[in-house]
Design brief:
This protein has helices at residues 2-15, 20-32, 34-56, 59-62, 66-93, 102-105, 109-120, 123-140, 144-171, 178-212. 84% of the residues lie in helices and 0% in strands. The termini are far apart. The radius of gyration is 18 Å and the shape is flat. Helix 2 packs antiparallel against helix 10 and helix 3 (34-56) packs across helix 8. By secondary structure, the chain is an all-alpha fold.
């Protein structure tokens, strides 16, 4: 039970902040309701678990491998730029999510896949896996007996967070209007853009400058 609670606490520490996934869940819940928002959150939870398992397997060492670092750098930057452009479109075109937006087309498996893609390209999760998460998982879940309850608690807390957030916002969406959607979309666009710039600049410093110098 102790490892289960530790995993749950670690998941809440990651998901409670105003990250890109939370903003996308809020945007979707306001415009389309709780269920599609929850599916995006569920996909993100799968991504969280993938990064958590990777941390337990010592993937922080792999992240230092140049080919993997290049893929994460370019892929993460590109994905975040795409999400930023979609959110900015929503913010400038009115009070609903645009028909061409990935959030509007996200239903069922596609919504889960969208959340998974966001989580896998999340700079917060990558940094967490390479630093804090990797070390905690390696020390607390070194064997199968510790890994199973730890990951179970981690996954349960991540799913609960997505369900609560999407449920609350979806239930109160009638009190919001187009301005709220535009404001949340603008915040989302700015966050995606800031993360994309941060990842690109950090990757350029670590990967390009040594080649040029």
């Amino acid at each position: 039970m102790e490892l289960f609670l530790l995993g749950a606490a670690l998941a809440f520490s990651i998901n409670i902040e105003l990250g890109v996934v939370n903003v996308m869940i809020v945007r979707t819940a306001i415009d389309r309701g709780a269920w599609p928002a929850f599916l995006i959150g569920l996909g993100s939870c799968i991504g969280d678990l993938i990064w958590a398992c990777a941390g337990a397997l010592g993937v922080s060492v792999l992240l230092a491998w140049p080919p993997a670092a290049w893929i994460l750098w370019l892929g993460g930057s590109g994905a975040l730029c795409w999400f930023a452009a979609a959110a900015l479109r929503d913010a400038t075109r009115g009070g609903t999510i645009d028909e061409s937006s990935p959030l509007r087309r996200a239903n069922g498996i596609r919504a889960i896949g969208l959340g998974l893609g966001i989580a896998l390209s999340s700079p917060t999760l990558i940094l967490w896996t390479a630093t804090v998460g990797g070390s905690v998982l390696a020390s607390q879940a070194a064997d199968l007996a510790g890994f199973v309850p730890f990951i179970s608690g981690f996954g349960a807390a991540a799913v609960a967070h997505s369900a609560i957030l999407s449920g609350i916002v979806g239930a109160t969406r009638r009190f919001t209007g187009p301005r709220t959607v535009r404001a949340v979309s603008l915040v989302s666009a700015l966050m995606f853009a800031a993360f994309a710039i941060g990842i690109f600049m950090d990757g350029a410093r670590r990967l390009l400058l040594p080649l040029l110098g």
